[in-house]
Amino acid sequence: MKKKGQEKTPINEKVLDITDRVRLVGETGEQLGIVDSHKALEIAYDKGLDLVLVAPNANPPVARIMDYGKFRYEQERKRKEAKKKQAKIEVKEIKFTSKIQDNDINYKVKHIRDFLEKGKHVRVRVFLRGRELATPEKGFEVINRVWEMISDIGEKQNDPKLEGNYINMMVTPQRKKKKK
After folding, report:
1. What is the CATH number of domain 13-83?
2. What is the CATH number of domain 91-173?
3. What are the boundaries of each domain within the chain?
4. Are 96 and 142 contacting, i.e. CB atoms less than 8 angstroms apart?
5. Tell me: the pLDDT tens digits for 26-36?
6. DSSP strand E in 20-127: where?
C-alpha cells in the first residue's frame, strides 16, 4: 500500500529493469564512473546499502549508493520542518448592515484595528437584506466609512464589490516600511 506523498523512486532490482548501465555515485558522493547495473547493485549490497536511481533521465542514468530508509526519513523531516515555518494567515470577518448606527460602527472598527495590529487579515462585509438590495450604495457608504477609520493601519487588498447579498472588502495589516 502506497502512502500519500511517497514517490516511486526506483531502488535496487527495479534499477535493473530500467537501465543496463548507470553512472555510479558512492555513499560519500565520490564518482565511481559508468558501471554495469548488475555490478552497481552488487557493490551496494556488499556495503549493506541500497542502489537508488536519482536521475533517471540523464544519459546514462545516475544511481547512488545510500541507505534509502535513512534518506526518506531525512526528506520527511525536512518537509515537516519547512511546513512548521510556513506563515499561517488567519482571516477574521466583521459583518455590518447598511442601517448600522455610529456607535456600533465604532465598536466593530475597534475590533478590526485590534485584529490588524495582531497581523491578522480582516474581511469587512456589509450584509444587504430584502429591500436593501435595491440600494446597495448605502452599503458602500458604510464600508467606505469603515475604511476611512482603518486606512491608517490597514491596506486594502481589493476595492469593495457587491457579491450576492454582501459587499466585501479585504484588509491586511500595513507592511513595515524599510528605513534607508
Report:
1. 3.10.20.80
2. 3.30.110.10
3. 13-83, 91-173
4. yes
5. 888 899 899 99
6. 21-25, 31-36, 50-55, 62-66, 91-97, 121-127
